[in-house]
Amino acid sequence: xxxxxxxxxxxxQPPTEEELTQAxxxxxxxxSGYRVPSRVNEAAFNKAVAEIAAATQVLFDSLAxx
Length: 66
Fold this sequence. Notes:
This protein has 66 residues and is an all-alpha fold. It is built from two helices and no strands. It has helices at residues 17-32, 39-62. Helix 1 (17-32) crosses helix 2. The N and C termini lie far apart (26 Å).
């Protein structure tokens, strides 16, 4: 679905907050169909980015090392 989202799970280092936010932004852009939301949708768009980035961080924090 989102081929441009790069793989963030790397054995040598965890993803940075910026990487998580950028991946979440790409995902929200893809599923919403907005590159830049209108002012009326901006709060919902930004909230979705923040929540997806936070959920991704929880995922990485919960993954067991190989």
